[in-house]
Write a structure and sequence with these properties.
Length: 315
């Protein structure tokens, strides 16, 4: 038995980097679950595993055991609503790529992504790309986004893959860390990964003329080493994020500024909707909590409640 780290997942085969530096193509036998819940991809990039080489000369093996995860990022599967999809595991931090324009920024997506990292206290930097396209209006929006998220403890960085703005700061953040890289399609993530990993040449795409959304350019999650230290886990562009693994209070506790105010609510199980003497609602009215964050929070609660009970627990 040998130990290694999963560096690529294609859905049926997993590329494992062994301690010896050799890469082995592996498959899995049996079923793996996450806290009793079904997974579309039971093994994630970043997983530390034990593999058994097969008794032949093709250099392949079988993953026999997933070693305990330090953390993981998970979301509801976009294709199988009763299942979860693992984005990555054992990461030091996450980078969420977005842009103010082309496509227009979706603050709701930012808040949903933070809901995937917050349960494990994974540090997140929100990176706003395409700065070379920003005019006065876009810069005003950028400053607003920066103020919203830095005030609650997230880092925000302005960059341009086109003219190099902010790339040195981005590399300093990535150096010597294992970083999950995510973003909605079309925000320029693949272009940035190409800049960070020489000779990689990931396929990049234009925005869809029909939908105005980005075309997916990364097919499978994969880990790439950085020549200045550390590694990134690149994931396919994400269109939507839903949560069949969360209950109402999970969401309330993982909007970090809501959680801080919740100790002042009249009721210990306050959901910050219709309850009297709610400190969170008062903070929204007073401008101490961003109103759009609160609206996005309420939307997520409604979506969770709209899923039939059996859809969320029959995992």
């Amino acid at each position: 038995m040998e130990k290694g780290v999963v560096i690529k997942s294609t859905g049926s085969w997993y590329q494992v980097l062994l301690g010896s530096g050799v890469e082995m193509q592996c498959r899995i036998v049996g079923k793996f679950r996450l806290n009793g819940m079904k997974l579309t991809n039971p093994v994630a990039v970043g997983d530390r595993v034990e593999v058994l080489p097969e008794d032949n000369d093709d250099g392949k093996g079988t993953i026999k055991k997933i070693l305990p995860r330090e953390n993981y990022v998970v979301r509801q599967s976009p294709r199988k609503k009763h299942f979860l999809h693992l984005l990555a595991s054992n990461i030091d931090q996450a980078i969420l790529f977005a842009t103010i324009i082309e496509p227009d920024i979706k603050q709701g997506f930012i808040d949903r992504f933070l809901l995937t990292t917050e349960p494990h206290n994974i540090p997140v930097t929100i990176v706003l790309n395409k700065a070379d396209l920003y005019g006065e209006k876009e810069m005003a929006i950028y400053e607003e986004i920066k103020n919203i998220y830095t005030s609650i403890g997230y880092d925000v960085l302005l960059i341009s893959a086109e003219d190099g703005t902010g790339l040195d700061q981005l590399k300093a953040i990535l150096k010597d860390k294992v970083t999950l890289v995510c973003g909605q399609s079309g925000v320029g993530k693949s272009t940035l990964v190409n800049d960070l990993v020489p000779d990689l040449d990931l396929r990049t795409g234009e925005l869809s003329d029909y939908s105005g959304k980005g075309m997916h350019t990364t097919t499978f999650a994969e880990m790439f080493p950085l020549n200045f230290g550390g590694s990134i886990i690149d994931t396919p562009g994400i269109k939507t994020l839903s949560f069949n693994n969360l209950e109402i209070m999970d969401v309330a506790h993982n909007f970090r500024e809501f959680f801080e105010y919740s100790s002042q609510c009249k009721y210990g199980d306050c959901t910050h909707r219709n309850e009297p003497q709610c400190a969170v609602k008062n903070a929204v009215e007073n401008g101490e909590i961003n109103e759009m964050r609160f609206i996005n929070y309420l939307t997520i609660l409604d979506e969770i409640e709209d899923q039939n009970y059996w859809e969320r627990v029959d995992m």
